[in-house]
Amino acid sequence: MPSSARNSPLHPVHEAAGATFTDFGGWNMPLKYGSELAEHRAVRESAGVFDLSHMGEVRVSGPQSGEMLDHALSSTLSTLKPGRAKYALCLTDAGTILDDLIVYRMDDGAAGGEQEFMVVPNAGNISAVVTALTQRASGWDATVEDESSRTSLVAVQGPRSEAVLAQLMPQAAEQLAELTYYGHLTLTVPTDAGDVTAVVARTGYTGEDGFELFLPASSSAEAGDRGSAVWTAVVRAAEAAGIELTLCGLAARDSLRLEAGMPLYGNELDTAHQPHASGVSFAVPASKEVDFVGRDALVGKDDVEEVLVGLRGEGRRAARHGYPVLDADGNTVGEVTSGAPSPALGHPIALARVRRDVAAEGTSLQVDLRGRGEPFTVVALPFYTRAR
């Protein structure tokens, strides 16, 4: 483990639970606690709890903060309603992807009141996003503040996640039941260490129903105390309700998001490719009238030479990031961005960036698995959709 990797504020909790750690985005994070397959299945069948404190939290506030974010990011944020969140891209001047984000509207929307947003970047891109937003805020009445080091983040994901949180916060059970996808509330979480204020969002990265609990604090030490207290309270709430809740690491998080067809920065998304070639063109609405950074450089969907597709393995061997994708004649037509066996589906799956002329659903391709071509078929995304 690189000595420069930062520990999560909840690191002692993970050590006590016997976690195996890995470096991710410069953070020393739990990879798994036992069987990553068991952790994956727990989220699909019941509930799992994740420490996501490596993610960033950037506060953008001021009378023109919404308009500034309209300029700085791909999505329209100024019209986002209080209590709602939206997916967005932070693009470079060349129209490539600096990061993908979720933006939360935090103020109450009162006329003439202060606008406030929370921007959540990926762990390895916090500094780049803070720098970009700070530069793009120039000339706007908006302030950018990085609160990442003093915020912990705990996620509860899976079909029983709402029941876990209703047990944890019985006073808010009705509010939780009414909270819709990409909505958020500020709630009080009872813990052994006292009440903790949390922004509870119905968001996640697993393809299941779930919640993310943002726990702001005045210092990194306090963030650790609050995060640890809430983590313990979540585990105890599940036990009290008789719900199977499994501690989950990044390995399960990655296989879950892959089944759900969700992109990962550094794999599907990077500064070498534009949104239309990365499966996230929906985050760049053609109807957006406000000019934004990167807009002039974006090419139309019909002009993109490569697109992101889903691949289903017809054999048992899984493709991995960087493996070449071949056509029937053995010519290279693309590259795998993410791949693994699918625990839920029982066969290998992969995301790949391929030439548009071989991207149609049902097209038979091969992946070069260390010198041997294995059959894969282009399929629709997502690979897995949860039961509603």
Count of distinct strands: 20
Distance between the termini: 40 Å
Total helical elements: 8
How does the major sheet shape up? 6 strands, mixed
Shape-level CATH architecture of the largest domain: 2-Layer Sandwich
Q: What percentage of amino acids are in beta strands?
A: 25-35%
Tell me the CATH superfamily of the largest domain.
Probable tRNA modification gtpase trme, domain 1
Helix amount: 10-25%
Number of domains: 3
Strand order of the largest sheet: 11-12-13-10-4-14
Q: Which structural class do you get from the secondary structure elements?
A: alpha+beta
> What's the gyration radius in Å?
21 Å
Shape: globular
Order of SSEs: EHEEHEEHEEEHEEHHEEEHEHEEEEEE
Q: What this model shows, in words?
A:
The protein has eight helices and 20 strands. It is of the alpha+beta class and 388 residues long. The protein folds into three domains: 6-52 and 150-255, Probable tRNA modification gtpase trme, domain 1 (Gyrase A, domain 2, 2-Layer Sandwich); 58-134, Alpha-Beta Plaits (2-Layer Sandwich), CATH 3.30.70; 262-379, Aminomethyltransferase beta-barrel domains (Elongation Factor Tu (Ef-tu), domain 3). Helix 5 crosses helix 7. The longest helix is centred in the middle third of the chain and has 22 residues, at 220-241. The two termini are 40 Å apart.
